[in-house]
C-alpha cells in the first residue's frame, strides 16, 4: 500500500503533519471535524506538502522527523515542492 506524508496549513496559520493512504479522504475528515483532535478549534485551509512512496513504517518515521522540525525548516520543505502545493 502507498502511504503518504502530508502537511496541511490551518486557518490559524499553524502546520499539521500526518500520514494517510488517501489524502482526499483524510483532508475531508479533517475538514468535517472527524479527523485528528488537532482540528478542534481550527480548520484545515489547504494541503501544502505531500510526499508519496512510503510503506506504513517509513511514513510514520518520516512524519516523526517532520514533526520535530522547526517551523522555518517546515516552511523550507514546503517551498521545495513544485507548484501544486506551493504557498
Verbal overview:
This protein has 87 residues and is α+β, with helices and mostly antiparallel strands. It has one domain (3-85): GIY-YIG endonuclease, CATH 3.40.1440.10. The chain has three helices and three strands; from the N terminus they run E-E-H-E-H-H. It has helices at residues 23-32, 56-67, 71-79; strands at residues 3-10, 15-20, 44-54. Strands 2-1-3 form a three-stranded antiparallel β-sheet, with helices on both faces. The longest helix is centred in the last third of the chain and has 12 residues, at 56-67. It is globular. The protein starts with a strand and ends in an 8-residue tail after the last helix. 17% of the residues are buried. The mean pLDDT is 91.
Rg result: 12 Å
CATH topology: GIY-YIG endonuclease
CATH superfamily: GIY-YIG endonuclease
Structural class: alpha+beta
- The fraction of residues in strands falls at 25-35%
Identify the strand order in the major beta sheet. 2-1-3
Which parts are unreliable, with pLDDT below 50 for 5 consecutive residues or more?
none
Global geometry:
globular
Features:
single chain, 87 residues, alpha+beta, GIY-YIG endonuclease, 3-stranded antiparallel β-sheet, 3 helices, 36% helix, 29% strand, globular
Amino acid at each position: 500500500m502507498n502511504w503518504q506524508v502530508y502537511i496541511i496549513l490551518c486557518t490559524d496559520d499553524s502546520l499539521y503533519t500526518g500520514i494517510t493512504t488517501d489524502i482526499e479522504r483524510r483532508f475531508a475528515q479533517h475538514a468535517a471535524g472527524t479527523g485528528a483532535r488537532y482540528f478542534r478549534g481550527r480548520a484545515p485551509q489547504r494541503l501544502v506538502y505531500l510526499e508519496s512512496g512510503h510503506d506504513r513504517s517509513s511514513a510514520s518515521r518520516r512524519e516523526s522527523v517532520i514533526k520535530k522540525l522547526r517551523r522555518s525548516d517546515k516552511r523550507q520543505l514546503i517551498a521545495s515542492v513544485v507548484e501544486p502545493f506551493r504557498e
